[in-house]
Amino acid sequence: MTVADTDQAIRATIHATWRIVQPRLIATLSRMLRDVPLAEELTQDALVAALEAWPSLGIPDNPGAWLMTTAKRRALDVLRRGRMLLDKHDMLARDLLQEQEIVPDFGAALDDDIGDELLRLVFTACHPILSREARAALALRMICGLTTSEIARAYLVPEATISQRIVRAKRTLSNSGLAYETPSGEALSERLASVLEVVYLIFNEGYLAARGEEWLRPQLCDEALRMGRVLAGLAPNEPEVHGLVALMDLNAARTRARTDANGDPILLMDQDRALWDWVQIRRGLRSLECAAELGGSGGFYALQAAIAACHVRAATAVETDWHRIAQLYAELAQLVRSPVIELNRAVAVGMAWGPQAGLDVLDAVAGAPALATYHHLPAVRGDFLQKLGRLAEARQAFEAAAHLATNGRERALMQRRAAALDTQNI
């Protein structure tokens, strides 16, 4: 292995470790410093330190512990320079000395207590003092470690817009001195909708990664589910909490069937349903029933969970009740005006009443500015055109989808579908 190869491997290890431990670093430092933006800044400093040190020193035996110790040292330096309260200074010093004697296992799975810590961080980022848009952007940046471009893609807005929201949110939190907390009562209800949105988007990023070479980020799905279940305990009478947990369970249950041995995507209609996790499916269906019993069957998350339930209740792909799914998407579209929902409704309509009917729905929303760079639009169009026998147009659509796709696996899938049409044209 060349020096360049070794350096690249070390950098890959650093970033892989970073993705796993970043939320824990921020949560731990936020609790100690009572300053979320500062905690996020210090964790970034620890990443830079690893990028500078590990290529020459080698990868530590416990990379996560190295990052945590480095971040805490940075925090101690800040406290000293700022002449903050002596008890906070001493507390961090004692923690650091203890860690030098007993190094915790940061490679282990996150436990329930850390799950609560992460949720406190989300609640802090979702304080009403911030705008609704800024709350989610800030939380996704800190909890997921998503780049501004990835968050912008999730919201289908310009990257500069997301960057401005995050900068303003950090400044507001820094100037406000807000506590790092899990609120209760009215304060919890006031923030709950934003927190659910964040958990939902964290799950979505895990379920279908916006960027990179892997289609799935299972650790994010697991973390979102963990937080969703904690929320269900904090707010057991809120139907949308149960709706979200149902949605995540029903979708996550299909994980094993969603990729082949090489990690390439397997689309829903082609999946081996024997690989679905039926224990998790039953758990998701119970959560959906709970949402309905609480009067929330028409909620944003419950409706999506009901759509997922239609898929898992079908013994085979051909038995899927696409008419019911199309109806549920129509209800969802009435609740939330979104071109992405209309795009999904077009898929359901096309499956229920034929590709031309789906294409008609798609054409009605195709001009939406938010979908201009959304690769799923030409991907769906290509599928409809292929079914209609318009193969040259379908190939162009799949090529356009491949060009727009920012995830390597999805790009390759679109390229394969485009190339396959050449064979059909022969």
UniProtKB/TrEMBL annotation:
Every DUF6596 domain range: 191-291
GO BP term, pick one: DNA-templated transcription initiation
SUPFAM superfamilies: Sigma2 domain of RNA polymerase sigma factors, Sigma3 and sigma4 domains of RNA polymerase sigma factors
Superkingdom, natural source: Bacteria
Pfam families reported in the protein's UniProt record: DUF6596 (PF20239), Sigma70_r2 (PF04542), Sigma70_r4_2 (PF08281)
Gene3D superfamilies linked: 1.10.1740.10, Winged helix-like DNA-binding domain superfamily/Winged helix DNA-binding domain
All residue ranges annotated as the RNA polymerase sigma factor 70 region 4 type domain in the record: 124-173
Protein known as: RNA polymerase sigma factor
